[in-house]
Amino acid sequence: MTTAKRNVDALEFFEKLSGPMTLGRAIAALRLSDEKTQVQYAKKLGISQNHLSQIEKGLKVVSVERAKKFAKALGHSEIVFVQLAVQDELDRLGIKMKVHLKIA
Fold first, then answer.
1. Three-state secondary structure along 45-70?
2. 0.90 cut: is pTM over it?
3. Which terminal CB of the chain, N or C, has fewer other CB atoms within 10 Å?
């Protein structure tokens, strides 16, 4: 099993436990597990603390390009971050589709 497949399986498991995952919720969970403040994480991501707060609360949608940059900055799976960003955008638009990405 590849790392990307394990990450997607873990995401599906988490969603069954706690409801739909968003990129903002994922970033917040990672930040809290790293025991970092929003100020510290925002600096790592190259954004303001206020912007990070809005992302974590689901008030701001993250572009695919930025999601990929965030994944790299945090040392996490680009495919999971991009998948969550695309899903967030579909959900925001009310498009009833589920996104599953794989590396080409």
1. HCCCHHHHHHHHCCCCCCCHHHHHHH
2. no
3. C
